[in-house]
Amino acid sequence: MKTKRIAITGGAGQIAYSLLFRIASGELLGDNTPVSLHILEVPEALSGLEGVKMELVDSAFPLLQEIRIGSDPEKIFEGVDLALFVGAKPRGPGMERKDLLTENGKIFIGQGKALNKVASRNVKSVVIGNPCNTNCLILSQNAPDLNPKNFFAMTRLDENRAKAMLGQKAGCHAAAVKKVGIWGNHSATQVPDFVHATIKGKKALEVISDRAWLEGEFVKGVQQRGAEIIRLRGKSSAASAASAIIDTVRSLETETEEDDWYSVAISSKKNPYGIDENLIFSFPCRTVHGECKIVEGLNWDQFLEEKIRATEKELKEERSAVV
Ligand code: NAD
Ligand code: LMR
Q: How far is the CA of 155 from the centre of ligand 1 (A)?
């Protein structure tokens, strides 16, 4: 197998400390795919990254071919097949993710330009750094020569949280919960869709008949889970975020099972739900013949309609703030 070149930004940070080792061990692309890590950091954090590199070397991973580190995106992104944009400031207690837009948004201008210039023409990019939807929009707009369909922002952690919560309520494992779509923004307005979710193959609404819990505690619980972790840990989620990054890329790279879908934020251009066409919006998606496609034909009830329009509105406001 040809070596895959993977860029990771924010390499000295807390998510990367979990993510890098899982990629190098083969968890991301499988046991037959050698990987080269291209890791970007700001100059002040390069010595910390040097230490992480030593630990990667000391792990003697059989699949790990090469580790490049540096702070020049044009050098680090050269020839990469996959780029994971983790490097950005996390929020603290009492903040919303969009409060980070002024500081973090500008990172994605320069990095988009560099990606456009030197990455593989088929590079897939996943933005994790918050606010990830709008950062991804900035990235994509600054990389006009690359396919806009290859830009993604991560809402998989929300999906995983929703599956865990529904599983707990139904008294079964999260793995028995499927078709949980997250609509919209990775923010407190996101919409975890319990209407189309299934539990052990049945409609979630048949298994959990308490609709008031679903509309209230469940939706709010998923929306606020990140803030709750910050409150308790003093830092935002890291290992579960790294896990969700692995899940996102694996879902993008493998054909989706018939009875499932996954959540990722993608370009809303020509979407089948009438969402504004110039956003990075999270939809239920499936990978079909190697391409990430929005699941079509899902009916929104009044609850979903109202909530999805609110999250769309928030994303439009974030876009206006950036302009
Ligand atoms: P962290 O502070 O531990 O690490 C971030 C790293 O990024 C730091 O080492 C910093 O030096 C580096 N960095 C900053 N600007 C950079 C730049 N321009 N280029 C390269 N590197 C840069 O933070 P973390 O906990 O690893 O979180 C990173 C980001 O991911 C935050 O914005 C956080 O809010 C976000 N996040 C998103 C999700 C999601 O579900 N989408 C989940 C968890 C965290
Ligand atoms: C999360 O959902 O855990 C991350 O987006 C971090 C945060 O700020 O909540």
A: 15
